[in-house]
Each structure stands twice: as structure tokens, then as C-alpha cells.
Design brief:
heterotrimer; A: 162 residues; 2 domains; four-stranded antiparallel β-sheet; B: 513 residues; mainly alpha; Cytochrome Bc1 Complex, Chain C; two-stranded antiparallel ribbon; 62% helix
Amino acid sequence: MPAPNQQGESRLASPRVSRRSFLSLASLGSFFAAIGVAAAGMLRLPNPTVLPGPVRRYKIGHAEEYPVGSERRLEAESVFIFRDAAGLYAVSAVCTHLGCIVSRSAEGFACPCHGSRFGATGEVLSGPAPRPLPWLEVTRAPDGQLVVLADNEVSEGTRFRV
Amino acid sequence: MADTAAREFLHNLRHLPQTFKDAWLRLGKVPESEREESQATFHNFFLHIHSVRVHLRTLNPTLTLGLGLIATASFIILTITGVLLMVYYKPSTELAYQSMKDIHFTVATGRFMRNLHRWSAHLMVVAVFAHMARVFFTASYKKPREFNWLIGLAMLVTTLGLSFTGYLLPWDQLAYWAITIGANIANSPRELTDALGITAWLDPGGFQKRLLLGANYVGEDALIRFYVLHVFVLPLVLLILVSVHFWRIRKDGGLAKPEDPMGGLAEWGGERRPVFEPLATKTYGLMAVVKGRRPPVNRGPENTVMSWPHLFWAEMAVFMLTVAVTLILSFYFDAPLKEIANPSVPENPAKAPWYFLGLQELVSYSAFTGGVLIPLIALVGLGLIPFLDRKPGGEGVWVGTPGERQVAWQSLLYALAVTVGLLAFTINFGWLRHWFPNIHQLWIIVINPGTLLVLLYAGWSLLVLQRRNSVRLAAVALFTCFLVGFTLLTYFATVHRGPNWEFYWWPSQWPVH
Amino acid sequence: MQDPAQPFRWVLLVSSLLTFSFLVASLVEENYLVEWRVRQREYQSILEQKATDELGRALLRNYHIGLRQISVPALQVVDRCVTCHLAIDDPRMSDVRQPFRTHPGDLLKSHPIERFGCTSCHLGQGRATSYRDAAHEPLAFWDEPMLKGKYLQASCGKCHLAGGLPQAALLSLGRTLYREEFACDTCHRINDEGGTECPELTHVGSKPLGAFDFAHVKGARTRQQWLFEHFQDPQAIVPDSLMPNPEMTEEQALALTVLMLSLTDDIPPFDYIMRPAAGSTLASAEAAARFEEKGCLLCHQFGSRGGVLGPDLASLTHQRNADWLFRHFKDPHAAVPGSGISPVQLSDAEANELTRYVLSVQ
């Protein structure tokens, strides 16, 4: 009865032929390549290709409608638009405390719900609000109108140069 | 002191890649001896369900056609694609259909994943039926494998349940009306209880339907119940059954096979090789205490090969073959999605999922017979096979008993003839209610094409039992009739039943609406 | 002895290569060849041609390839039309080929897409991302193909509820014909008005296609085709119909079809509905006076005037709708427990008008 040979090789193994090893390598390689591409596809799926929810881009007319020193309030969108010598800027009217809508006050903004008060640039003066009112990006739409991108916050002081 | 400790620390840091790799991989290289190959199998959590050595017959593709592996591979594909789809699918009647559209149109790889899920679902149902047929025709249910046969039947039912619960989730017209049909089939015991006049006290039909739907109609409650069943309960049940099924394969000694001859020469792999006498020493330690006909301990490992690598090559090959076929189908063919579910616009014809269409055909004659009686008879009948046919012999070989092939062919022709004949009869002449409009429903429950087919098949099987004097051959006759009947009825209801369940030669002839 | 694993290696190789190829093909198709990406690359070259001024260059700089959608939850609309119709509101593109042409006319000024979406007027399948799937032409399993040409006027009727509309001449004509020339309400019913002998028409514009019988329709299998042919010869479309042949001209049939198509179950929200001005009994100057007279401005700010004790009324409407405002006007303490308001007695009509006023000034 043939016992395992000295090296302990399997009796059923033929001597290693380069052709068979190549096939082993090739098939395993293509197996892992296929699994790899499949895994990449699976990882891609949870990343949304288009974000749900309403598009928060608000057209606000042309620059000429905002003379220097003017301000306007967008009621439905809860945004204040200001223009000063340096340019146009938009401040969100959503109170950073619990989301009520602030109104204009002499010093800046005031929230009717819990009494937060903000200064003219949105900084917190008093009240429970934890952070300043965000400034929102203003840019230009294809038809030349100004448009507020309410999903994009910009740093305080950023102005759209007209 | 601190110096040597620092040096030791740096030494360990430098060797980190090596020690990290060693911690993960016990061997760290491709196994080169049989001992290393066996360790690769039983030291690995995922692989050690396999035996270390496996009989050469296991690797023979024409023996098993890899059907069990195809079903398992489909289950894995379904689980992975299913979880991915769950990221975007929303199980509410308001949101389900839209989420399906979003998956199809915008989700990255969404269309592909959904198609993969649908086609591998169909493939899995086909594979499990084919697998059951393979196991039957190779008599692989005989002792000690009776219990595994029953587990397999449980898995068949669970697979059908998974497919059925998933069918509702898209919430389109196809889904809604198919499940309405299904729920009414669950309600079919009503036909019997109504005929007996006892529905007021005993209403299993109504109970089943309410349990399924959570209401009297297919709506939000049905959707969430089906969702929970489909994504959690049934997959868990199937996973447990699969585990038990694989465990039993090991304990029952691997795949069923004819006994290897002891002593002398045996023909295998195209060669004649000596069959060896018992080894002087035990080759495998612990396994000796395990009972059963595994690659035997007190015999040399003839006719067996190491699982690593041979069996794993085979498994990978079948797995990737399944993936490739399903992938190609998914690339070219989209899963259907009709209009959003609309309770006021019935689909006509409203058809159950294809694997239930045979039942739907029988239900069209009698709800109770098609919905309850015949499925029960079929399941019980299938379950009894290994307990009624107990004579050993023919295991692991296709149609291995003498006369089996002949009986199978005869049964095929017989079943074709009687089934087609009965269908043709009912199409041309109708049934009891046409001839006797006032006949009591009980008569129809007892005498209808479904019950007649059962009697005709059973009669043929008993004839074979007597003439051939073999339980196995009688079982072959009955099982073949069952397969033919199932396939034929499914085909018939798919192709030849149109609006109002009337007979048409081809779908192109259906009236324009 | 032949290696028993050999055939499996081949099967593994072939099926893995097939899998790999089809996965890569799918990757390339989805990320490069798919119709909407091709369109967006075409548009990029158009933008490049038109980048002749600062605005053009800025738009080109900010351009990116990707799916776009307009989502208007109030109308339950999610429209991906703008993925290909990228220049819908860019006036520079009025001479460019479709799908890159600007929206014709100046309807977008009064119906901005951010507020209306596209499919609320044009129908079609907004969630789709290809020409075919968007139902530009009738599409299987989608009951709302795009309304084209004159049929588009039907959508105006969903918000412009009664009376005539100069820009939707056919719709206006249809409304007149229904009431006067043909007196359809003798037999048919819309909402609560009309007879009951014949099918109700309240939501005929949304009736599923599966509920129509197209057996005798000669043209395309669409709602408008069925209705149009039915107007021209009722018995031809519905063989045992009791409807006498109205003997109408083609234009009249078209006008009535447009009217029928406007009767949908798509109920727009309160603030989209355009009731004719004649319906309100208080002009806004009077309503403002009423506000002061009732003392509201003593505590509430409204616009640039008023007190600061109560919430600013101008900032309420996105939190409160018409129903809430009405209830508050009638019984403020029930609507806001713990409210500091001193209630004022208001009749239902007054509360209604004040509600409308508060809403209209937002």
C-alpha cells in the first residue's frame, strides 16, 4: 500500500505542472477580481446619487432691486436679504435654538418664542440660542437673477459682490 | 532593564506585519501536505462544516448537478442584494412604489440589484424543486437520511414563503392582485366550512386570512407583516434549516452513494485502483467516536480526496456559475413593475406567482381542494416517502433500481395523458356546476379535476406497486406523476389562461380592453 | 490520475471572467453611457460655447454632471426632468435644440419650477431618468403620459378652478360648453352638481387606464384619445351608451376633452388654488383696517407695524395653515393653550376673511 511519500505529499496530487498552477492562479485571480468589483458596487449603493427633499434655492430678483442699504425679508423661505456697500448677503431667519422664525429688531433680530436676541450680523446677544444665525450663499442663476442657496452656509461676512 | 524592554518593544513593532499575519492565518501559506490541507479545513470556522476528506462521487457534476449549491448560492445572493435593497425600500403603502421607482432610476447600481434579487429568487425556487427531484431520483432519502429529507421539505415551504412574501413588497398591480389571490387561497377552507354550514363556529379560512393580512383587505397591515416575514423571520428560519441540513449531511456520511466494494479492484476516475484493507492505525482522532458512515475511520481513504482544495474548487465554481447566470439575466432583463396598486382596478387575469399557478388552476375548480387539500396531500405524501420506502439499495445513483427508468418514462406519459385529457375535458364540457346548476358544493369539493388527478396518479402508483412488487418503483411512479402534473398545470395556467380565467391558445389572442 | 478539480477550475475561470465583464460593463453603462449623462456632456459643450460673459463663465465653472431633481412635497412631486432639461430657466438657451431649450413663454415667471415642479402641469413620470421612461410618449404601465399641445391646458384647470382663463382658451371654452351649449350636467355629475343617471365625472381625469374600455378606440390607448373619440361618437366607443350624439365640431370635442382631463383627484393645497378675485368680500385695505379696528396690532406685529407682545403674524404662515388660523381666530385659547390674547368676537365670515388676508400678505 503506497504510504504518503517522504515529503508528506498527497498521494492524489500529480507533480505540480505549470499549466495547472497557471489555471489555478488565473481562476482564483478572476474570482477575486469579480468579487472585488461586486463589493465595490455594493459599497457604492448606500451613497445617494441625488439628495431628497425640496431644493432650497430661492430666486430673489435682480441686483438692481436691492439698492445699497436696503433689506428684504423672504417670508416663505425664512431668509433676510441685505445689501451694503460691500455687497449682498443673506442671513437665515431660523433661530438656532429650536427653529422658530426670528423677526427684525432694532439691534438685529429677535426670536418670539424664547427670547433669543441676535445682533445685526446674526451674532448671539442673549437668550438660549447656542450659535449665531447662519449666513447663506448667494450666487447668480442662469437667467441673471440672484439666488440664495439655503443649503449652503457660508462664513459670516461673506458677500456676493454685485 | 529599561533598555532591553525598549529594544523588545521596538523588535515587536518591527515585526508587526508578520505577527499580525500569523495571528490571522494559522498556516500562513498554501497547504503543502495532506495534514496541512486537513487543518486548513477544520481549523477554519466557515470551512469546518465540511469533512476533511470527501468522496470522489461528491465532485461528480452529473450526480447532483450542483443543485443544492445553486440554491445556496442563490440564497446568498438574495441575502446580500436584499440587505442592499432595504437601504432604500420603504415598507408603507404610500412610499413603497415610489421607493421602487427610485431604486430603479436613481440609486447607484439599484436597477441591477433589484433585477439580481428578482431573478435569483426565481432561480432559487426552480433550484429547490429540481434539487428535491434529484434527491428523489437518486434515492438519497433512504436511511439514515430521512430526517434530512424532512428538513428539505421544510426548506421548500420556507423558500416558497419567502418568495411569496417578497412578491407583495413592490406594491404594484402585479403584487397587489397576486397576494389578493394568495390570501383568498388561504381563505379557501371557507368553501368546506360553508358547505358544511359550520363557518359561524369554525372558520380556519377566515382565521388564516386575517392572520396573513392583519385586516380583511390587502393594505398597510399586510404590507408590514409581509415585510417583517420576508426580511427577518423567514430568512432566519431558512438559515437555521440550512445549518441543520448541512450538519445532517455530515452526520449522515456525506452525499448518498453506493457502497464502495471492500477489497479487490474498483473502477473510479477512469482507472482501476486497488481498494485497501483497513489501516493499522486510526487516521483521525476524535472522529472515531462519531457514529455513521462518514469516510470511514478504520479503512484507508480510498476513493476520497481532500476537501482542500478539491471540494472548495467545486463549490466556488458552482457559486460563480450561479452568479454569472443570474448576473447576465439581470443585465439584459428588467424585473417587472406595473402600475401602482389600485384596489378598484383588478388585473384581469389576476395571477398568483408562477410557482402557485398550478394551485390556482386547481383552485379554479374548487377553492378548498386546490388551496388546502391537494397541497396538504402533496406535502404529507412527499414527507412519507422515506418512511414507506425503506429497502436499501440504489442510493446515490440515478434511477438505480432495476426498472426505475422504465417506470419513470411510463409515468411521465401516463401523467401527461391524463392531465391533458382532464384539462381538455373541462375546457370543452365544463364541470359539475355546468351540468347540475343546483348541485351541493360538497359534491364539487369531493369530485373535481384536482381530486380526480390525485386518484388517477395514486391508482397508477398502486398498479405499479402490485405489478412490479416494489415500493420504490411505486414511489417513482407517484413522484413522477406529481412532477409532471405540477409542471404541466403551471405551464397551462401561465400560457393558456387569460382574462376571466378562460382558455386561450396564446396570450396574443386575449381580447383588447 | 486526473485531477478531479480540473474541470471546476475551468468553470470558475469562465464564470468569474463573465461575471467580471458584465459587472464592468454595467459599471461603464451606468456611469458613462447612460442617456442622461450623455445629454449632460452635450450640454457642457453648449455651455462652453455660450460662456462669453462673466455670468456664462460662472455658470460653466459651477456646472457638474449629476442627477438633478425638483422636489415639491406640497404637491407630492419629485421631478427629475431637469436632469436633461438643464436650461429650463436659462433665457440664453431659447434657440438651442431640445432638451436644452428654455421653457417657452413666460409661464415660469408665475409658475416657478421650485414651487410647481414639472409634472404637476406636464404629467409624465417625473421620477424617471430617461426619455422613454419619463413617458414623453405613452408608456406601458404608466397611466399619465405627458400632455402635449393643446391638451396641456387641462392642467391649468387643477388650480384655476372656476371661470375663464385667457391663456387657456380651450379650457375656458370647455367649461362654457359643458354648462351651456351641451348642458352635460343634465345627466353627468361633477362634485355635487349635476344629474346621477350617467357616470360621475368628478375625477375622470385621473381614472386609471385599466378602467377604460379601449376595445373600439381607433387611436392611441390614452385617456385623451378615449374621451375625444367618445365626444365625437359616444355609441362607437361605448356600444350601449344612452348618451345622444352631441354632434360637436372637432374644436368643441377638443375643448371638452381638455375640461375632462382637468378633473383630477390631484387636489392642490390651499395656497395653490386660484379662486377668482370676485369670490372674496374684503379687499386687503379693508382687511387691514379690520385688523386695527379689532385691536390686533396692539400686541402683534404685522409687516412693519404693530406691537411686540404677541408673535409676529407675518412670520407664522409656514408654521400654521388656513385651518389653524381660522380656528385661532374663532377661539384663540383653544388653539393655543396658555395664550395671553384677549379674544375678540368674530363671525365665521370675518374669521374667514381675516385668515385669507393674513395668508395673502405673506
